[in-house]
Amino acid sequence: MPASEAAISDLQTSHDFVGRRQEMGELITALDHALGGRGRLVMLVGEPGIGKTRIAQELAVIAEQRGARVLWGRCYEGEGAPPYWPWVQPIRTYIQDEEPENIESVMDAGAADIAEIVPQLRQKLPDLQPPPSLEPSAARFRLFDSITTFLKNASSTSGGRPLVLILDNLHWADKTSLLLLEFLAPELERSHILVLGTYRDVDVSRSHPLSQTLGNLIREHLFQRVQLRGMTLEEVRRFIEINADTSVSSDLVDAVHARTEGNPLFVTEVVRLLKLEGFEEGQSWDVRIPEGIRDAIGRRLSRLSEKCNQVLTTASVIGREFNIQQLDRLVDGLSEDEMLGVLEEAARGYVIEEVEGGIGMYRFTHALIQQTLAGELSTTRKVRLHSHVIEMFEKLYSGDIEVHAVELAYHAAEAEAMIGPEKLLRYSILAGEQFLESYAWEDAFAHFQRALDAREDQAMDDQLAVIKFGIGRAMAQMVGIPNGAQKAWDILSQTFEYYVGKGDIEEAVNVAIHPIPILYLIKGAAELFARAIELVPRDSLQAGYLFSKRASALIFESTDIKGSLNAAMEAMTIARRESDEVLEALSLVCLIRPLLNDHRPLEAIDAGLQAIEIVHRTDDIQSEQRAQFAIAQALLIVGEPDRARFHADATLQAADMLHQRDGHVRGLLISADCAAYQGHWSKANELADKALKILPQNGGVLGLKAWMSLQSSDAESMQLLVEEHSSDPNAVIYMISWLTRAAYETDNNEYLDSAALVAGEPSTHSLRSLWIDRCAAVVAVLRKDTAAAAEHYSALALDKGTFGPALFGVDHILGLLAQTMSHLDDAQVHFEEALAYCRKAGYRPELAWTCYDYATLRHAQGERSDALALLDEALEISNELGMRPLIMKATALGELVESQPASAPRYPDGLTEREVDVLKLIAAGRSNREIGEQLFIALNTVARHVSNIFSKTDSSNRAEAATYANRNGLVP
Fold it and tell me: Phi and psi of 501, rounded to 5°?
C-alpha cells in the first residue's frame, strides 16, 4: 500500500525527527484506513537501533491527535515474561483507564475469559463469574475470540475510540502471543484498529516462531511490511545540526554516515558523544567515532558514575523493566534518596526512563543498552546476580510467588550452576502450569521440558510424574510435531501407570480423562480407557467421558465397531441422565464413525446433526468441527454432494475459528472431492492448491491432484505420490485409493503391483480396513482372481448404494466382482444400480466409467446396441471432461463392438433390452424427461434411444411407436 501524497505532505513530526517521510506516509495512510473502519496490520522491520520504536512513537502522537486511543504492548528478551505479555499490557492499560460499566459493555461475555490472563480485571469487575469449562482447544479459541471481540468493540464508534495497538519487538514474543496475532489479523479489515508490530529482521531465522507467523500472514495477504533503512547522508547532516545546534563540516557528516551506516540509534549516540567532547575542526573524526553501536553505548555509560553503573548492571539482570523496590533489596549501601539520585542520573543520561503509570517503575530506553550492560558481566558475576534476584523475588513476593513463577524459572535456569536444580525444577513446573492454564501450550512445553532435562534419567516419583503429565498435556495440544499425538500419549500413559501403581486413583483418572485432540492411530488408548473406567463408578460423569474416549479409540485403533458403538451409547446414557450437553455432543460425535463403518450412513448423518445442534449451545467448536467433517464425508458416501459441500464449508469455518491447519485442509479436501466427483476439475484443483499451501505433503490432496493429472496422461504425478508417501503409514489409505484408481484406468502393472502390495498390508484401523478392502476388491478384479472376488463380493454387499474411495461406487465394484465371477445377470443388476446412483448424485466421472464397464458386459452378452449406447454416453462425458484414459478405452471398445456382427435379436426388429424399456414408457405416455428420471439415464441418451426405436419400428411419432409395442406384445 503506497503512501498517499497527502499523507506525506501533511506530515508533522517532532522537531528532532529527521527523514522517514515515505515510511511515515505509509503508516499514516494505514492509520487513515483504520480510522475509517478498515483496520490494518503493519510491520515495521529493520535492524537493531534503526528507529522502529521511535517511528511508532511518532505515529502514536499523530494517532492521538486524530482521536485514536494508543495502547502499547512490549516484548522483552528472555523467558521471564508471563503468558500473552504483549497483549496483557495494552488490555491492562485499557481497564485501568475505564469505568467498570464501560469495561462490561465492550467485553460482554468475554470478560471472564480475559480475566484468566489479566487478573486485574477482577478488581474492576469483582462479581465476574469463572468461564465455562471446555476442552483446551475450545477454551483457547474462546479466549482468542473474547480478546478479538473486546478490541473490536473498544474501537467501534459506539463503544469508544479507534485503537492503535503497538506491539514492540515481536522477535521476542512468545509463540502463543503470535498465534493470537494470527487470530486477530483476519478480523482487522472490518474494524477501527491499526495494529503496528515491530521486529528485527536480522533476528528472525527460518526456524524462529515469528517466521512461521509471518509466513501464515503473508499467504493470506493480511499485513503490510514497511522496511526501515539507514538515514541518508543529507538526513544525517540535518540530524546532527538539529541536535548539535550548530553547522557541521562535510567531513564530519561523511565520517558519521560511513561509520554508522545511518543507523539512527548509533547516530544519536555518536552525536551525544561528540557534543560532550566538542566539535573542534581539524580533528580526525574516524578516531573519535566509536567502532560499533555497543561501543558507543559503552562510552555513554562510562560517563555515568561508578555507583550508577553498578546499579544499572544489577538492573540489567532483572530485565528490561525493573522497580526501585527490587533494586533496594539487591543493592547494598544506598539509602532511598541515594538510590533515587542514581536513577535520576541514569534518566538524565537517557539510559533509563520511567514507565508511564507505574510509580517507581523504570525501563531501559533501548534493549541494546540492557544487553550491553549485561554483556559486560563475567559468567560468575552474572550467575551470582541471578541467584540474588531469585532471593529478592522470594522475599519481596513471598505471598504471591506463583505470579512470578515465569521470571523465577528464567533466573533459576541462569543461576543453576550455583544454586543447583531444585529451584529450577520448582519454578519451571509452576511456570509450565501457569502457561497451561492460559492455553499457551508451546511455552508450557518448553518449561516442562527444561524441568525434565534437569531430572535427566532419574526414576519416576511424584515430581517427575507432574513434569511428564505437564509435557503430555502440552504436547497433546500442539501441532507440527512428527508423531506428536502418539508421543504425548506415551508420556501420559507412563504417568497413568505410575499413579495406578501408587494407588492414587484420583490422579490416575485425571491423566486418563485429559483431552487428547487426535486419537487417530494412537496405540494402547482403548485399553487404558477401559482400565480407567474400572477405577470410577460406572454411572459417573467421569465414566461417561472415559466411555466417549474409549469409543473413539476403539474405532480408530481396532476393528471393534460393536465395542465402539456400545461405549458411545454408554456415554450418551450418562450424559442425558446428568444433563451434560458437552458430554452428549461428544458422545454423538463418537457415534458417527462406528455407524458409518457399520453400514449405517444415514444414522451417522443424523447423529452428527444432533451433535451440531447441541454444540451451538455449548460453544464447543472442536466437537462441531469433527461433526461437520464426518457429516460431509457421510453425505459424499450416500451421494449428496451439495449437502456435503455445505458441511465442508462449516468444517472450514470451525477450523478457521480454532486456527487448525489440519481441520482447514480436511474441509478443503472434502470440497475438492465434491468438485472432482462431479467433474469440475478447475474448481477441484483450485481447492486442492489452497490445501497444499497449508500442508504441502497432505497425501489425500496430493492423491486427488495426481489422479486429476492422470486424466491428461500425466503419469509422473502419480509416481511422485508413490515416492513421497511410500514410507508414511498415515498416507496408506490415500496411496491405496489413488494407486488402485490409476491401475484400473491405465492397465499399468506397476500401479497394480504397488496397489496390491499396499492393499495386502494388515490394518487394525477400522476405517482404513473399510477403504483398503474396497480397493483390494478392485485389485482382485484387475487380476481376475475369482476366489478373492467372491470373498470381497460378500463383504461389500452390505454397502450397496454408497460411494467408496477414489471415486469408486460400491455398486460399480459389485458389478465388476460379479462379472469377474461370471455372474453376469447379477453384474447387470449392479451396473444398473450404479448408473442410477451416479446420475442421481451427479458423479459424472464415475458415471462415465460405469457406462464403459457396463458396455463391456453388454457386449459380452451380445447386446451390441446397448453396448454402443453406453459407450456413446461414456465418450460424451469423457470428451467433455478431458478424461484421456477413458477416451482411449471407450474408443477402442467401440471400434471392436462395431466391427463384430450383431447377434440374433431377442426382441423384434433388433430392439435392445434398453430400447424395449424406453418403448414401454413411451406407450405409457411418458415424456423423454420422465423416462430419463424413471430409468436414471441422461436426457440425451433417452433421445438417442427414441430415435433408434422410431427407425427400427418404422414409426413416425410416439403414437405409432405405442401401437407397435401393443401389436408385438411388448406392453403388459
Answer: -65, -30
